[in-house]
Specification:
This protein is α+β, with helices and mostly antiparallel strands. Strands 6-7-8-9 form a 4-stranded antiparallel β-sheet, with no helix packed on it. The chain has a 3-stranded antiparallel β-sheet with strand order 3-5-4. Strands 1-2 form a two-stranded antiparallel sheet. Helix content is 21%, strand content 31%. It folds into 3 domains: 60 residues, no CATH class; 37 residues, no CATH class; 51 residues, no CATH class. One of its GO terms (cellular component) is Rad51C-XRCC3 complex. This is Rad51-like C-terminal domain-containing protein. One of its GO terms (molecular function) is four-way junction DNA binding.
Length: 150
């Protein structure tokens, strides 16, 4: 919702975003308008996609999330894999993705043996089925494994 000419209304057009004043964020930044914030914070997403297309390469950007324990602590809250989480790069970056891969690591037993179960799951990708696989990380690289192989 934005206030335009004294009337509060939904921000349906880009001109509405230009008219909406910005608020100071946790980093102390405040832009001229919400549109300026979007353009300055997300321009790199557009440039990375352009470079990936031009050079036919993959760009990986991690937006690590942490579990939200206290809802009123000022965290930006998103819902992921059945949990309330806060993305490190903010909710705007969380919505700039072409695909989302969810990585998990579970330590077996007491963890002393160093045995960890790692899984990669396709959480969002319009061109891929929702699948998952297990993998290991060793000195010589990252390798897929059969679930019973660990």
């Amino acid at each position: 919702m934005v206030r335009i000419d004294g009337v509060v209304q939904p921000a349906m057009k880009w001109s509405h975003w230009h008219a909406a004043s910005d608020q100071t964020d946790r980093a102390g930044r405040c832009y001229n308008s919400k549109a300026d914030r979007v353009m300055k914070e997300l321009w790199i997403s557009v440039k990375l996609k352009e470079l990936a297309y031009r050079h036919q390469c993959v760009v990986v950007v991690t937006n690590q999330v942490v579990d939200v324990v206290e809802r009123d602590a000022g965290n930006t809250v998103a819902w992921s894999s059945g949990r309330s989480v806060s993305p490190a790069l903010g909710i705007a970056w969380a919505n700039c993705v072409n695909m989302r891969l969810f990585l998990t690591r579970e330590v077996d037993g007491d963890g002393a043996s160093g045995s960890a179960r790692r899984r990669m799951k396709v959480a969002f990708a319009p061109h891929l089925p929702e699948r998952s696989c297990e993998f290991v990380i060793r000195r010589d690289g990252v390798f897929g494994v059969q679930p019973a192989e660990r």
